[in-house]
Records
---
Amino acid sequence: MRLYVTPASPWVRRVRVTILELGIEDRFEFVQTKWSHKWATRAVEHRPDFLEATPVVRIPALVTAAFTLTDSHSICDYINGELGGFRLLAQEGAPRWRVLADMSVACAIIEAHISRRAELLRSEHERSNDFIGKMRDRELRCFATLEKRVPQFGATFDLAQITIAVACGYESWRYGNEWRGVAPKLAAWYDVVAQRPSMGATEPAETPQA
Amino acid sequence: MRLYVTPASPWVRRVRVTILELGIEDRFEFVQTKWSHKWATRAVEHRPDFLEATPVVRIPALVTAAFTLTDSHSICDYINGELGGFRLLAQEGAPRWRVLADMSVACAIIEAHISRRAELLRSEHERSNDFIGKMRDRELRCFATLEKRVPQFGATFDLAQITIAVACGYESWRYGNEWRGVAPKLAAWYDVVAQRPSMGATEPAETPQA
């Protein structure tokens, strides 16, 4: 199956780390995409196979023989369930819902990351500094919530922990380390998990320009 | 458990329809929230219990005794699995992934809906007409993709169909009926499912202003 990726996207990184943690990278063909910085407000040029694969025209997109999944939520659910024996997220019951709860906060951070990035890429006269501040504040509130959850983190680097680690990594990469002051225990946890081979192999880098 | 809602949000409607289809509305306390139109770019005033419930400060948010879920993806997954016996989305296997694939396209439409709405609520000098056009085009591409899927829709009004129906309803309500020309079979399907009590009881209305 084909997975459309970029090296900058935290949504892509979440999927790639999941694949590496499960040791199933040989099941995938990774297809790089390029993005002009105009993506924040305009449709940009893409390879025809990518446009054909997903009407959303976003990464990650996973194309199997039977269907296409066009967001990291469904892709991670599929990889964990069908290819991973539910090792990174329980199939049902309290262990699943508890992990979903932490994961939903981490996903909110990543959504804010992308929205803030898109805002920064807008032309100056269309940019809202209020919006940038709103996203920053949301990120820091979410980090503060996750800080309280650290003592309950389980032994498995599961889908929630993967998503949280990716959120921490992207925040530091694009926006600096203010979050570490808000969430010192989380930062200490992150410094350990960032050493995992799956995280090291997926460190963010700028998206190739179209 | 408490579910924070508004009458306008398609993400909330998706959760409410899911609850009504499962006939479990007596399990929830529905808490209305109010939103100044400034929400598009700024943090707005909220009740302290809502701010305490979710660091994301978005609806829907589901607060149980054990945890809080702060997006409709995790809320629907929980409701379907824990309270609905997986009746609206299979627990695993091809039936789950196929439904996730359609659902991910419908979710992309709803994301575009919210982004387009937020853009329209920005002050004129910070508004990007390019971005509005990009979201409109994405919506119509996704409707065209779903149009091809209609013959494969199953007999159950499942989580994908619920999400698709909500996407159709919101599109018509906010942005008109251009999509019907792009997806006539889907529109005919929608006109039938829109008659379901769960859809009738959740027709969108303007969000109360703070």
---
Amino acid sequence: MNMELANRLPSLKLVVFDFDGVFTDNAVYVNQEGVESVRCHRSDGLGLSRIRKCGIETIIISTETNPVVLARAEKLKMEALHGIEEKGSALSAEVEKRGLSWDQVAFVGNDINDIPCLERVGLPVVVADAYDEVRPLAKLILKRKGGEGAVREFCDLIWNARKGKKETNNE
Amino acid sequence: MNMELANRLPSLKLVVFDFDGVFTDNAVYVNQEGVESVRCHRSDGLGLSRIRKCGIETIIISTETNPVVLARAEKLKMEALHGIEEKGSALSAEVEKRGLSWDQVAFVGNDINDIPCLERVGLPVVVADAYDEVRPLAKLILKRKGGEGAVREFCDLIWNARKGKKETNNE
Amino acid sequence: MNMELANRLPSLKLVVFDFDGVFTDNAVYVNQEGVESVRCHRSDGLGLSRIRKCGIETIIISTETNPVVLARAEKLKMEALHGIEEKGSALSAEVEKRGLSWDQVAFVGNDINDIPCLERVGLPVVVADAYDEVRPLAKLILKRKGGEGAVREFCDLIWNARKGKKETNNE
Amino acid sequence: MNMELANRLPSLKLVVFDFDGVFTDNAVYVNQEGVESVRCHRSDGLGLSRIRKCGIETIIISTETNPVVLARAEKLKMEALHGIEEKGSALSAEVEKRGLSWDQVAFVGNDINDIPCLERVGLPVVVADAYDEVRPLAKLILKRKGGEGAVREFCDLIWNARKGKKETNNE
């Protein structure tokens, strides 16, 4: 892990996630009545609950209009904004509301509509299979693909960085 | 990109897609009551909306009788003809109705029932995992498989070609 | 293609298929109410309809009790026996009922409960990802996996073999 | 197979499984109404029924609260405890209830919440794609991934080991 990442991870206060392509493999299952489903990864829940115990807040911001985003967020006990056309402004509002500086915020995305968010935050992150246009914006490219435990991987990095921090504090 | 492709992309007025194997991975999910679902890719929507903003029309023509085709098309705000036995004639009717020449039309397919369409259009395209029988008919073989962002990939090619065109026009 | 296979394909009158692991990838999707779904391949339908036009009969014989087998069979316009504990006896009854010899019958399977059928028929076939125990029984191992177009692949082999036969007859 | 494994397999009386990531690929499918589905492998059923015929008991212990665990367990005719926060204590209670020693128990898991169980049992087992943190605890790492026949693979190992035992006994 490079030094910048090692420095940023322990001071995070808010982690914001895109939904499709991050919590999912960017697929949508559609049935003949138009009902949508998505494929998520069970392992994400354990990672999210661990970082929340450290006092880190987690939100989903998605352009997708279908309520499937809310269904998954509810299971994960996360706040979610969906149907958001301008993700950048929505993110700014959330950061301001909490009185945070951009250095305390990470965003995890995968596609071009995440660019305004990736450009704003102190720690921009993309999944392993993110689109080429957004990869250069990331300070961290995860090893796992969206929907294959990418969320868990990032939570584990934060968890381990904070553990190290605490151990150092205790010395 | 070869010269012919570079020339054809900017002049497209109509892009016609097969459904199964192009918007999907050619799988169908069947439940015990016979209800069908398909697995599509979220990224396709963004690509389609960008080329429509350039004034390009997009249609789906499918032999599949199940209304799942219409359910996905509705979400993507696309016109769709389904249950079409003779895809070639249906395509001809659509082209004629719009007063277009074949040079202004692309078709994206994957299987042998797409042959009549691939033979007619100026720009025949197939997905990465198209059947061997249809590959020789294509002037463009996409890098992505059906249901894995193949539609988005083709839309991005058109978008980038037109951007180049505009920039040239503005000079 | 070896000589024996080339000889057997054109004389087939009945093709019998296992369901799970042949028409599907051997997965079952279960929802929280216990409703089951399976993942099939759209391409199979086209292959099956072509060989039926040649007068070849097609049946599914499955041990699975869930009616999802029947739901898929109905879409494919195939006869299906499901919940069959003794596949071998069920197959024998079907062959006898039609007055066929075993040389005119192929069976496509993937797992150990297919052994009695694979041992009986003139042309035993398994999918690419069949279990090790059954592979030695097969005279033909398909290139495609179950649920990934294996049924279509076998139908295409029969279709091409019969086309050759007709062309020879016409000379 | 190493000697310890060869010795332990024939004396097993109870096999306990985690659910998500063992019976499934650790994915969860969520629809827009919040209904959850999981993807299991048909082949597991045949393996489980064979070892039960040998008098081995099989249970699922899962932290997951969704009843989809029970839906799959019912189909497989297995007892299942779900929504279990402390898997270790739950496992101890089951072993005590049956009057077994830890040498007669195997546990199959994939993630860190399985650690208390993997540490207790005589034969700790993990699937091919288990998390790094739990792999060192396993005496057996299966070749197959969760949801891809890992349960079947372990059942087949037990079945084959007991067959050998019986043959030896008969001599």
